[in-house]
Amino acid sequence: MKIVVDAYGGDNAPEEIVKGAVQALGERDGFSVVLVGKREEIEKLLAENGADATRVEVVDARDVITNDMSPTEAVRKMRDSSLVKAFGVLNSDPEAQAIVSAGSSGAVLTGAMLLVKRIEGVTRAALAPVLPTVKGGLVTLVDCGANSDCKAAQLVQFARLGSAMVTATSGNPSPRIGLLSNGTEDKKGNELTKEAFALLKEESSLNFLGNMEAREILSGDYDVIVSDGFSGNIALKACEGTALAFLSILKKSILAGGLRAKLGYLLMKPVFKEVKKTMDYNGYGGAVLLGLSKVVVKSHGSSKAKSIAASVIQAFTVASSGMLTSLDLR
């Protein structure tokens, strides 16, 4: 299997992207990577990082799509960009089963929608990031921004796609599913969530637990959280912002707390390190765009090697299962 990597997508490209791809090869067997971008620069970085030449292929691309470009226009016109050429490899090479990019979110989503086929019955692809929970497990949020406006039937599809992804990556045969709402009661929510709730209750193939509130996202009581992309994106950014704010407040309090606070920090340092490790998105990969015939993983724009490596391994794991691309949601 080949995993295609957009070597010039992201704030730290190409150095961290190539380094991460090589790191992924060192951590897992069973796949090779196709790095797309400026050949001479990629080959130099591969040599510097001691890459296994038998597991790496380079496809030359001279242009780069940036965040300030119109996604649709860039994907349609910049045929020699690393992202568009990466999608070209994904479509033309039968051994290529997944793509990883930390590039412009709009361009990655647009490219995926225009250039990769949806699986049977899927009306909307959904972006699904993986988040750590307080119980040490992971939770998948579907959708976090690909679809601002949705229909109830599409939320049911998101639930089925998210459930299949969790099963594919963790082996959990019956993921617990919650519907993001403004209360846990059955009658809570707007018209969309009320209709989706009724449809999800009828899906005997899903382990649907009912409505849940945003404060429960990281509780560990759910494996999949279903939402429209507008609400899901707000919930995701709120979680990220709260985590950053908490760490900032904690740091300021320790610095302002005098000798006692600093001594307490030294005693608690191993605990703080573990908390930081748990909350670090870099170790969990990227957001998978669910509902497509091949696996698309959108990594964070500021991803470094650790996050890229996790995203490549995530792409390989999901693609290897075949569960997401073989679903029939008609």
Can you describe this structure?
By secondary structure, this protein is an alpha/beta fold. It folds into two domains: 1-122 and 291-330, 3-Layer(aba) Sandwich (Isopropylmalate Dehydrogenase); 123-281, Isopropylmalate Dehydrogenase, CATH 3.40.718. Helix content is 45%, strand content 17%. It contains ten helices and twelve strands. A seven-stranded mixed β-sheet has the order 3-2-1-4-12-11-5, with helices on both faces. Strands 6-7-10-8-9 form a five-stranded mixed β-sheet, sandwiched between helices. Strand 11 and strand 12 form a beta hairpin. Helix 3 (71-77) packs across helix 5. The longest helix has 28 residues, at 229-256. The protein is globular, with a radius of gyration of 20 Å. The protein starts with a strand and ends in a 9-residue tail after the last helix.
